[in-house]
Design brief:
Layout (H helix, E strand, L loop, with lengths): L5 E4 L5 H12 L3 E5 L4 H15 L3 E4 L6 H15 L4 E4 L14 H29 L2 E6 L12 H20 L5 E8 L5 H13 L4 H12 L8 H11 L11 E4 L7
Parallel strand pairs: 1-2, 1-4, 2-3, 4-5, 5-6, 6-7
Bound molecules: nicotinamide-adenine-dinucleotide.
Length: 260
Amino acid sequence: MIKGKLALVTGSTSGIGLGIARALAADGANLVLNGFGDAGEIDKLRAALAAEFGVEVAYDGADMSKPAAIEQMVRDAEKRFGAVDILVNNAGIQHVAPVDKFPVERWDAVIAINLSAVFHAIRCALPKMRERNWGRIINIASAHGLVASAEKSAYVAAKHGVLGLTKAVALETARTGVTCNAICPGWVLTPLVQKQIDARAEQHKQSPQEAKVALLGEKQPSLEFVTTEQLGALASFLCSEGAAQVRGSAYSMDGGWTAQ
Ligand code: NAD
């Protein structure tokens, strides 16, 4: 069903975004990758995905904290592929600090990349989806879109905001072929989480393995990480015809985190 359509996945040079991009390419979607990284490595990744799945793969290095760059990325994708049929808002950053010591510049960056960028990408891509009466908007929120953790005020605020935005957009598109939903992952072992494991190991004088087990034990009853492949499978389902009436939902995939 998504064969030949275009999926723009923000923050897809690593982690969850890359896992979702791979799953959508396996379903036959062409891709626009986005995110930071070494130019040579990204070009290799682009070529490898194109060869593995037989789809067209472009790359746009737009900085998701910059509204004008987001708009240009969407326009360029539309020029080359006709429309952004599938928009996966995945790029995100984390900063951990008590609220009264939270660096103002980090607050602004987390809100810009994790929340405002989602608004800008949707705002720019939606008109063409409406024109074609088909579209899928998938926002990667978090278990932290539903519950909080200490010292993550900006991230928790942004992810709760993403779920609100998801519902508003779902209502505005309810009578069209465009759907808007969110995915709320628990811990996934990506560079974003590895940084937190390393910080924890140092702080508590633990080995990386001990820090990993402690991190999971605190929040995730399954004691297993969610994988990027599992999240890719969920994104693939949300793009399918079977999901046409899934609208404004927040799908948890969190090893039981928010069941507690
Ligand atoms: P990651 O650090 O592996 O990947 C983040 C991606 O975003 C990278 O491609 C990076 O280059 C890109 N990025 C960061 N800042 C950017 C910017 N300003 N402009 C463009 N691209 C930018 O992280 P991840 O763990 O894969 O996280 C992806 C998403 O999933 C984030 O929104 C994160 O909040 C969310 N999430 C992650 C977890 C987890 O446990 N890893 C859990 C819940 C939600």
